[in-house]
Amino acid sequence: MDTRFLESFIAIVERGSIADAARHLGLTPAAVAQRIKALEDEIRQPLLVRAGRSVTPTAAGLGIIEKSRLLIRGVEDLKALATHNEFAGELKLGAISTALTGILPFMLRKFLFDYPKIDLHVTPGQSTKLYHEVVEGQLDGAIIVEPPFAIPKACGWKRILSEPMVVLVSEDCTEMDPIKILKKNMFLRYDRNQWGGRIADAYLRETRIFPTRQLELDSLEAIALMVSQKVGVSLVPDWLKPWPEGLRIRKIPLPDTLLQRHIGVLWLHASSHANLLRQMVPLLQPQQL
């Protein structure tokens, strides 16, 4: 079976039309349609249903789409292994939101220049979700919050950044004692389902601070905006810029300066791009950004 036929099939399913798939592949619509006919003849099942300009997969098409993606990924991995030190193929990288805005934009130009044959795909998400996608082999690696447990032997890990936890208050707050601030004000809680949120939660429990009024959110940017609007106060990591524009807030450090959220790169040793991810680490560290 010619893998180019599968690539065309995947492109059509992902884009919803033969014309869009042809533009993506750099082919004519007629050439793509011929590939699909050859694939259907080989499998002996119709794979696509055409309705006007749109195309959707049949039951048989849906049945093979994921296996087709895995097969194409495997072929790309073989090509990457065959080139030895010349990195090529698709690199699937996950990244938490603050890494998407505070880390990746400042290293991508050099990365893409150094590795022109790498087709980089970035998947946004929360650390817990991205961690499991790396472990399960869906991603080659991810920039995430350091897990609160030991990294499995099947994976590599390199810490690239440590962010101190700070108390966020509106700029007109006159109180300077972070403990008093956390005890007396409406508390905007960093989501405890996230590993960074668990750091804040553990600190509150250890210092016996139990907010009676609170709102729990999973977006650090939203928390900062709400603090700026005097909705409440919060305990969050002092993440890398950029922060939302126009904020009217102050950051008050905690007495415990060792309370930090650690950010790092997780990768799967079995990934064909494990060596590339190890080489990426210096580019991701703050002094390089």
From TrEMBL:
Keywords: DNA-binding, Transcription, Transcription regulation
UniProt keyword RNA-binding present: no
GO molecular function list: DNA binding; DNA-binding transcription factor activity
Domain (HTH lysR-type): residue spans on this chain: 1-58
Signal sequence range: none
UniProt entry tagged with the keyword Lipoprotein: no
One of the record's GO cellular component terms: protein-DNA complex
Record-linked InterPro entries: LysR_HTH_N, LysR_subst-bd, WH-like_DNA-bd_sf, WH_DNA-bd_sf
UniProt record similarity statement: Belongs to the LysR transcriptional regulatory family.
Protein name per the record: LysR family transcriptional regulator
